[in-house]
# Entry
Amino acid sequence: MKIAKIMMLSMVVLGLVFTFAFAAGDAAKGKALFNDKKFAGGSKACNDCHAGGKGVEKAGDKKEFKIMGKTQKSLEEAVNACIEGGNKGKAIDAKSAQMQDMVAYIKSLKAAEKPAEKAPAKKATGGY
Ligand code: HEC
# Structure
């Protein structure tokens, strides 16, 4: 009886963990894709052109992009434009888990950049 209960509970917990991970996108997985030369069937990694996230730090806030002479209306479209034009791969589904992970990673860059920008002010007030 006890074992059955424990199994039930862990299945519920696992289910929740997966739901959250897929719904929100996983920045760590996105980073791995960002560094992967074979991502989306391409031959270059995003990181080859955007080393350490260079040039995409503010993309999480943008509504419109201009990449390689074309306009993109969402971050997903921008990522796909770079997959095709930069990585030389094939565009992926905007709603796929990979895209959500990639978007989560790009958005996490913005979060990581902010404290650095405001570092002097924070130090003066004692920081965290
Ligand atoms: C061959 C080089 C190259 C590769 C590879 C590349 N990009 Fe880009 N990316 C660019 C260029 C050029 C721009 C245009 C804006 C600029 O001048 O920085 C850009 C712009 C972007 C932007 C918009 C930035 C903004 O704030 O307007 C995003 C987002 C982006 N890339 C994501 C990616 C992702 C994700 C990958 C991997 C799938 C990738 N890029 C691979 C060259 C590249």
In short: Residues 44, 46, 48-50, 55-56, 58-59, 62, 65, 67, 75, 78-79, 82-83, 86-87, 102, 106 surround heme C (CB under 6 Å).
